[in-house]
Amino acid sequence: MHSAARSRTPAPRPITIAHRGASGYLPEHSLPAKALAHGMGAEFLEQDVVATRDNHCVVLHDIHLDRVSDVSDLFPGRGREDGRYYARDFTLAELKSLTLTERVGEDGAPVFPGRYPGGATPLAIPTLAEELEFIAGLNLSTGRQAGIYPEIKKPAWHQGEGVDLSVLVIETLAHGGWAATPDQVWLQCFDLNENIRLRNELKAPYKLVQLIADDSWGESSTVYADLLAPGGLTQLKGIVHGIGPWLPQLYELAPDGTVMATPLIEEAHALGLQVHPYTLRADALPEGFASLQSVANWLVSLDCDGIFTDFPDQTVAAFDALGLAPARS
Ligand code: CA
After folding, report:
1. Among the options 38, 56, 61, 276, which is catalytic?
2. pTM here?
3. Catalytic residue check, 64
4. pLDDT tens by residue, 12-35
């Protein structure tokens, strides 16, 4: 492997990207979860972005509200025919009246039992503008610069709802002053057509990441199997600066349990693309790994460039334990 052949100057440290904030400890995308992640030393803090009825950008993982808030209690009957409650159907003022809770599944039970119980804690949905100001303020007050990592959620769906989410996000970033420090911004999307548009038509001055889903999830019209096929990443060249694969796309397990890396990271690096897989969770380790540290060791052995994690403190500590040099941007 080429990394082993190098002289052993310490490898650059993969960037720790706080996935929805320090979401292992506090409800995802609440501002306290972002403050905690900042204090834990994450180099980047993630924002998932969706649009309200009145075209404000809010930070929420899904176009739906019902699994992370009390929306069905406060606004009964405001769901769509599928029974789901959509952020797009509510004004910002209405969304601000909701309380964020720990994520529950279809059955109403917590997805990750043992995480923050919440309930009555008054945690509000932040707008993207509020969150960007919050992070800029923390950067100033602590003197430690954390970058931002916004995701444009379901841009084609938003277009169908009559809103151009990418334009709103780019305007909000510029208004928050982030265009002056583009190295501190990674912009991510699952939709390849939108990344092409961000790059060529909207001229986003930020580093772009193509997220890679499994085709069974129905994330977008992008065919992820084509991206993952040998040579498939070449279609990203000149468009994005990195890829965000699902962790299980980086390896296979041999019958004896040995972790065998797929060529994805090497192929990405050969094209000059960084690799930031998702998601490292201490309470839901990837199959085949016995500890968060063992995942971190393995990622470093592959020269992986970053990792989305729900547990920024444990991830930072795992890289610290390896004596790695400061993170590349
Ligand atoms: Ca995301």
Report:
1. 61
2. 0.95
3. no
4. 899 999 999 999 999 999 999 999
